[in-house]
Design goal:
Residues 84-106 are annotated as: Disordered. This protein is mainly alpha-helical. The protein has helices at 2-8, 19-29, 33-54, 57-67. 48% of the residues lie in helices and 0% in strands.
C-alpha cells in the first residue's frame, strides 16, 4: 500500500489546490486501460454470439457490456412475456365494460 501511495503522490505537494486531481490522475495512469478494453470487447463479442445463438442478441450484448462474463447467462434465462389479453366479444356489446361516466355513448 505504501508503494501505491508513493506512486500516487510522486511529485505532488498535498497543500497544492489541485493536488487531489493530480493524485487521481496518477492513480488512473497505473490502470492497464488497453488490456481492460480488449477484455471488454471479448466479453461483448462472446455475449453477442451467445445471444444470437439463443435468439436474444440485444439481451446478450447489453448484459455482457454491463456485467462482463456474468452477462453470458442472461440469454439463457427464460423470456418474460406479457400476460395474454382477455378475449373481446363484440356481439351486441356483451363482454364490454360499461361506458365511463360523462361519456357520449349510453
Amino acid at each position: 500500500m505504501d508503494e501505491l501511495l508513493a506512486k500516487a503522490m510522486q511529485g505532488i505537494d498535498p497543500a497544492e489546490p489541485g493536488a487531489f486531481l493530480r493524485i487521481v490522475m496518477n492513480l488512473m495512469a497505473l490502470v492497464p486501460w488497453g488490456q481492460m478494453l480488449v477484455w471488454q470487447v471479448v466479453f461483448v463479442a462472446v455475449g453477442a454470439l451467445l445471444g444470437w445463438w439463443r435468439g436474444r442478441l440485444k439481451a446478450g450484448i447489453v448484459a455482457s457490456l454491463v456485467l462482463g462474463p456474468l452477462g453470458w447467462f442472461v440469454p439463457f434465462l427464460p423470456r418474460r412475456t406479457p400476460p395474454p389479453l382477455p378475449p373481446v366479444q363484440t356481439s351486441a356489446g356483451q363482454g364490454l365494460p360499461p361506458p365511463l361516466p360523462g361519456s357520449k355513448k349510453r
